[in-house]
Amino acid sequence: MKHWKNLTAAVTLLAASALSAQAADMVLRSSDTHPDGYPTVEAVKHMGKLLEERTNGRLGIEVFHSAQLGQEKDTIEQTQFGVIDMNRVSLGPFNNIIEETQIPSLPYIFRSVEHMHKVMDGPVGEEILAAFADHDLIGLAFYDGGSRSFYNSQKPIASMADLSGMKFRVMQSDLFVDMVSALGANATPMPYGEVYSSIQTGVIDGAENNWPSFESSGHFEVAKYYTLDQHLIVPEVLVMSKKSWEKLSAEDQAIVRQAAKDSVPHMRKLWAEREAASEAKVREAGVEIITDIDKTPFIDAMKPVYEKYVTSDKLKDMVARIQATK
Fold this sequence. Notes:
The chain is α/β, with parallel strands linked by helices. The protein has helices spanning 2-20, 39-54, 72-81, 113-120, 123-130, 160-163, 174-182, 195-201, 211-216, 242-245, 250-284, 296-300, 303-309, 313-324; strands spanning 26-31, 59-64, 86-90, 137-143, 148-152, 167-170, 186-189, 206-209, 225-232, 236-241, 288-290.
C-alpha cells in the first residue's frame, strides 16, 4: 500500500511538472534524495545545461531534489518502471539487485579517492555501468560519495587494538556489521537521526561517515576524535530508465551519455570544495584528526568479509583487477 501511495504521489508531482515544462521538447525528470545545492544535485543540473546547449533546447533536465519523489528504494523502482527518467543513487541500495555493485562497496577495496577515480573512470567502471542494462536501467556515470572514516568520543584510534571492544553505529547493513566485527569492535545498527544523542549519552562510542556528514550532522560536537582510515569509498551512480532511454534517437542517446560523463568533473570539484569547508569547520572546533595510521592490519582483517561476499569467479576477478590498478 505504501509503495502505491509513493508511486501515486510521484506521478501527480511529475504530471504537474510536465504541464509547466515548455522550455525543452523533452524534459527528463531526475530524482535525488540530497537537498538543493548538494554537489550531486548541482552536477545533474549542470548536465541539463549541457543537454540544452548540445541539442538546441530539445532536451533538458528537471531535478527533483530533497527526496520529493521518495526515498532511494522507491525511486529505483519508479525509474525501472519509467515513471522517473533519471536517478542519482548510492551504490548501496543496488547491492542486492546488481551483484557487480557489491564490489565498489567493499571495505578497503580502494586505497584512496584517487584510486577509486582511476578504477571507476576505467574498464571496471564501464563494466559495472553496463550491468544495469539487465535491470531496466542505463548506467550513465559515477559521482563521489566521499570516504567514510571512524569517529568517537573516547580516545584517538590509530590501530586495530584501539578499536577493540568499542561500540560504533553502522547503517543497517550486514556488510557494515561484518566489517566492524572483523576489526574487533561492536557494530550497533541504528537510524542516522539517533546517532548524536546516542554518542552524547554513551549508548555508543562513535560512528563512521565522511567529512560533510560528520560536520553537517553536528556529530563533531560530541565525537572529538576522527580517524582518517577511509574504510569505505563508495561511489554514487547516475542511472536512466531504459524505457526513457529507448524513446531517444541513437544520436540523442550519445549526447546524453556524454553530457553525463562531462558532469563528473563538475561534481568532483563541488564535492572537493564541500569536503574542504567541512574539514575546516571540524578542525576549527578542536577535533583531533588522526592521520598516522598503518592500514595494512585493517585491510588484512577484511579477508573473512571478502570470503563471505565475493563468491563468484566473476566478482573475484573484478576485485583482483581493482587491486592491480595503479
